[in-house]
Amino acid sequence: MDIYEVKQYVWEVAPFGDMVVPGRIYADHAIMDSLKQDLSREWNALQQVINVASLPGIEKYSLAMSDVHPGYGFPIGGVGAFDTSSGLIMVGGIGFDVNCGVRVMRAGITKKDVLAKQKELAEALFHDIPAGLGSEGDLRLNENQIDEVLTRGAEYAIEKGYGTEDDLKHTEEDGCVDGALPEAVSHKAKERQFKQVGTLGSGNHYLEVQYVSDIYDEKAAKAFGLVKDEVLVSIHCGSRALGHQVGTDYLQTLEKAMKKYGIKVRERELVGAPFDSPEGREYFGAVNSAINAAFANRQVIAHLARKVFTRVFGTGEDDFTQLYDIGHNTAKLEEHGGKKLIVHRKGATRAFGPGSKEVPSDYRKIGQPVLIGGTMGTCSYILHGTETGMRETFGSSCHGAGRVMSREAAKRQWWGESLQQQLAKQGIVVLGHSKSGLAEEAPGAYKDVDQVVNVMHETDIARRVVKALPLVNIKG
Fold it and tell me: How would you label 440-453 residue by residue, b for 16+ Cβ within 10 Å and e otherwise?
């Protein structure tokens, strides 16, 4: 294996064996040293980058962003773009929580306002935002109504009274992707979602109240409507049990398709079907359905948060406005270099540059807002997409800090209650539905998000706009 630095913070694994393209990793020396050390482990991200680089139809590079760590088949923080006629679509390249993503809202108040009612706000959000394993939401739907959610996405939630048309304008794909096939989603998957639209779930999902602590780019911050000490609400969740069931269901379908079409892969977890096949198209239709379910889910949660803020602070609902909503577990049909590709982003966010027609008109001169979640004890970032990113990474960026420790290892090192107490001393109120879940998400279980974002900024893949620090965090 020949790994070399082609320019600062950009590394490549030269093709060898059955690799179709080079592997490309965005990392500083500390991140790269850690990845190399992990090569001695059976489950490691660098080997997964190589495995993806060996898949048929892959274009240009097997990419890994600076938050990269091992995932199911594909590395988390991985990006792979495939030719639509010769390439694959696969569960491993999307993930089981389809369209897990981040939505950021501007609350219309300042840090000082929140500090005056911090505990009251935390308790109100904890009470009103359904969260935790098996949590149930306000909307109780039947199968026909779920099909509408899968077809119409966030628009369905707004029609039911959860949000405004302006929310849609500032959501990726206007909150609804084309090509959904509800009939490609199993009854079991739909049934699991009947009571889950508008719920945070568990694991690394959260609702966090933050404030803008640092502004790096005044022009971009102004375009995004961000000022110092302004309060933001960040929502991180996805398609819940429906998306997971879609992934589980299609593993078997895609494995049969591989045998049918004689496809060989380096790792069984990379099972996929040719995109341009009946099985590939069916799975893509199911993925698009789950993407829309996630948009609807975040839409409902955002409006529930909006109602809490208006009640606690006496502000109007119009004061609570949406900055942006973007997914980071998706497969999208996009055009890059004049060619239509199916772009898999697994724990990597779309980060389109200035002038892209997919970016809302009020942000288009700057580029798409790129929403980077940190940890409940550190910070988050808002970046913007660039022309460099469009050329080098198919308009993709990191999506968060990236784990350095398994959940089981984190639970052996931290206790939920002591973690809450420690964060309270830092001025952060954390309320969780599971103490062990809090331990799993300890800040120390993640990479340094400042370091991860710095790599994206210095390589001009996505550039810093603002940093946001936590005040309140609600966990499942």
Answer: bbbbebbbbbebbb
Structure tokens at 169: 């304008």
pLDDT tens per residue across span 187-210: 999 999 988 999 998 888 999 999
3-state secondary structure of 349: strand
Q: Give the CATH number of the domain where residue 236 resides.
A: 3.90.1860.10
The catalytic residue positions are: 399
Q: Which residue has the tokens 């998400």?
A: 441
Query: With 0-12 CB in 10 A as exposed, 13-18 as middle and 19+ as buried, what is 263?
Result: middle
CA dist 12 to 30, 249, 388, 447, Å? 16, 35, 17, 21
Over residues 264-305, the pLDDT tens digits come to 999 989 999 999 999 999 999 999 999 999 999 999 999 999
Which structural domain range is residue 314 located in?
3-475
Distance CA 110, CA 231 (A): 5
When divided into structural domains, the chain yields a total of 1
pTM: 0.96
pLDDT per residue as tens digits for the range 359-379: 999 999 999 999 999 999 999
